[in-house]
């Protein structure tokens, strides 16, 4: 127990090699021989550090009998061998992310299949992260679809998806992915929204990122002022004064959502009419519920 606590402390302190030394010391004594909790500690630590080879050495230790002969006394059937579980395999995936080794993900998935261990959303999220850092965006989408078929994707799955879409310049798709996440009631992390803001800014849509930020933080009047400035052509690029910020579908939808949530139906009517006059059509799936709510409120 004391050794396992030390492993945990060293892991949280990001000191993987010192943790590894403690782990190998544990192998020398019967009283301290690693149990599953100890293997979890060292695996997570090595995975976070990206030490793939060292992690596979630990897995070999799990599966092998002790190299040292112990005097086990009356416990003649003592067998400390263990099989890796999902925590250990997730640690391998984490190491693959750090080292950009996409081949390792398929080894992990094959092991899980052979041992009838069901991958979680976190497992698939890590697989997607590996594919993301390796530039295999088509596999990111493929594994995201696999998650959607089997369960409801989590915040990590959406975060990686948004990053992949951003890197491929698919800004509208990234925005829709976040909307899909929100419609499912999934709470995205702050880093996900930061990535979405960077995605919008990289596509020349910084004002939309700012509008989204105002809405997310309940600053309705600021969002309204920003929309009016965009519509009136008062926002221009500093690099090119002839280039104006233009409201598009995402701009209007973001503001309409905010109006509906705040029940500001006069502002909703104004924005809705502006959306139609700017050439964006009524989307039954997107707008019908809000329009009906506005109608019930006298609009």
Automatic annotation (TrEMBL):
<keyword id="KW-0809">Transit peptide</keyword>
<protein>
    <recommendedName>
        <fullName>Pentatricopeptide repeat-containing protein</fullName>
    </recommendedName>
</protein>
<dbReference type="Pfam" id="PF01535">
    <property type="entry name" value="PPR"/>
</dbReference>
<dbReference type="InterPro" id="IPR044645">
    <property type="entry name" value="DG1/EMB2279-like"/>
</dbReference>
<dbReference type="Pfam" id="PF13041">
    <property type="entry name" value="PPR_2"/>
</dbReference>
<keyword id="KW-0677">Repeat</keyword>
<feature type="repeat" description="PPR">
    <location>
        <begin position="154"/>
        <end position="188"/>
    </location>
</feature>
<feature type="repeat" description="PPR">
    <location>
        <begin position="85"/>
        <end position="119"/>
    </location>
</feature>
<dbReference type="InterPro" id="IPR011990">
    <property type="entry name" value="TPR-like_helical_dom_sf"/>
</dbReference>
<dbReference type="InterPro" id="IPR002885">
    <property type="entry name" value="PPR_rpt"/>
</dbReference>
<feature type="repeat" description="PPR">
    <location>
        <begin position="248"/>
        <end position="282"/>
    </location>
</feature>
<dbReference type="GO" id="GO:0009658">
    <property type="term" value="P:chloroplast organization"/>
</dbReference>
């Amino acid at each position: 127990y004391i050794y396992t606590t030390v492993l945990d402390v060293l892991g949280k302190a990001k000191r993987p090699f010192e943790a590894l030394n403690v782990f190998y010391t544990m192998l020398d004594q019967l009283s301290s021989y690693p149990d599953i909790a100890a293997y979890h500690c060292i695996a997570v630590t090595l995975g976070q550090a990206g030490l793939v080879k060292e992690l596979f050495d630990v897995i070999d230790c799990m599966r092998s009998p002790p190299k040292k002969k112990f005097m086990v006394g009356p416990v003649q059937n003592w067998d400390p061998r263990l099989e890796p579980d999902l925590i250990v395999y997730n640690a391998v995936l984490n190491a693959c992310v750090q080292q950009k080794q996409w081949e390792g993900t398929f080894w992990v998935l094959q092991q899980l299949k052979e041992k009838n261990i069901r991958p979680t959303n976190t497992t698939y999220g890590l697989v997607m992260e590996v594919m993301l850092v390796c530039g295999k965006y088509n596999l990111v989408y493929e594994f995201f679809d696999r998650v959607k078929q089997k369960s409801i994707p989590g915040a990590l799955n959406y975060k990686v998806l948004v990053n992949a879409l951003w890197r491929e310049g698919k800004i509208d798709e990234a925005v829709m992915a976040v909307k899909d996440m929100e419609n499912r009631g999934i709470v995205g992390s702050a880093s996900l929204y930061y990535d979405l803001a960077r995605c919008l800014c990289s596509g020349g849509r910084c004002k939309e990122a700012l509008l989204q930020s105002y809405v997310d933080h309940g600053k309705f009047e600021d969002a309204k002022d920003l929309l009016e400035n965009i519509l009136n052509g008062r926002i221009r690029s500093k690099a090119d004064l002839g280039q104006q910020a233009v409201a598009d579908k995402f701009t209007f939808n973001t503001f309409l959502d905010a109006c509906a949530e705040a029940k500001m139906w006069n502002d909703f009517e104004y924005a809705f009419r502006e959306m139609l006059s700017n050439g964006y059509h009524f989307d039954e799936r997107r707008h019908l519920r809000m329009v009906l709510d506005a109608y019930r409120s006298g609009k």
